[in-house]
Design a protein that fits this description.
Strand order of the largest sheet: 3-4-5
Bound molecules: zinc ion
Helix content: 10-25%
Strand content: 25-35%
Number of helices: 2
Largest sheet: 3 strands, antiparallel
Number of strands: 5
Distance between the termini: 46 Å
Structural class: alpha+beta
Shape: elongated
Order of helices and strands: EEEEHHE
Number of domains: 1
């Protein structure tokens, strides 16, 4: 699998990323420490789920019922 670094736009092979950061149920692959820092400081700007790998299962956690 190949993922796109959301900061610099470089394509990174799974397992060759400098670091993988999970944010809101999505794994983001960053190529270098600089991209990691940039990503961590601007999560809302760079976090685009279509670029990462979803980590959450699709099964829903049961909701509490209020009776
Ligand atoms: Zn990068």
């Amino acid at each position: 699998m190949i993922f796109k670094d959301p900061v610099c736009g470089k394509y990174i092979q799974r397992g060759k990323a400098h670091v993988v950061i999970e944010y809101e149920g999505v794994n983001y692959f960053l190529c270098c420490p600089r991209c990691q820092t940039e990503f961590e400081h601007n999560l809302k700007l760079y976090a685009r789920p279509e670029l990462g790998e979803k980590t959450r299962k699709l099964t829903q956690v049961p909701h509490h019922h209020y009776n």
